[in-house]
Design a protein that fits this description.
- It is a single chain.
- By secondary structure, this protein is an alpha+beta fold.
- The protein contains four helices and seven strands.
- It has helices spanning 20-30, 37-45, 93-107, 122-129; strands spanning 10-14, 51-55, 58-69, 75-84, 112-118, 134-139, 151-157.
- The two termini are 26 Å apart.
Length: 163
């Protein structure tokens, strides 16, 4: 992230009540689904795990996560949505968002992060594989209004560094 580096003009900001509408507008532009109030409540509740991405001070992308308790009390992170507006793709914005969340997981000793990806979304699958995510499950008929309706569960297990 040096001066003049390609992501010198990319910045991240937390999602709060006052800028939640930015996330709603982005989601409307990016995704073929309308998200309900629970989605936005989960995004706000995840704190630092949900971020807006700005390119030259224009809001162009976001990552929204949900923290989930597993049996035994461990926390895992679910990426609900990750998106960057089409004209801004390929600039490292999605990479910066995912890298940020992975770093946060490592700092907080969270050992698992996962998401659902439509089975025909090869770009997304390849994108996550670059970060060490693996397809761990296939769910038939996961989606109701898009074709194909099937998804992969894509998971990354984060090895803990002992201090």
């Amino acid at each position: 992230m040096g001066v003049g580096g390609r992501d010198a003009s990319i910045s991240l900001d937390g999602v709060r009540d006052k800028n939640l509408m930015q996330l709603k507008k982005l989601n409307t532009a990016l995704f073929p689904v309308r998200y309900n109030d629970k989605y936005y409540a989960d995004a706000l509740a995840s704190g630092e795990f949900t971020k807006l991405a700005y390119y030259n001070d224009i809001c162009v992308g976001s990552i929204a996560c949900r923290l989930e308790k597993k049996e035994g009390g461990a926390i895992r992170v679910y990426i609900m949505t990750l998106g960057v507006l089409a004209p801004y793709r390929g600039l490292g914005i999605g990479t910066k968002l995912v890298s940020y969340v992975l770093d946060l997981c490592a700092k907080q000793n969270i050992g698992e992060i996962y998401l659902h990806v439509q089975t025909n979304n090869e770009d997304a699958i390849n994108f996550y594989k670059k970060f060490g995510f693996e397809i761990t499950e296939t769910i038939q008929n996961y989606y109701t209004n898009i074709t194909p309706p099937d998804c992969f569960v894509v998971t990354k297990f984060i090895t803990q560094t002992k201090k």
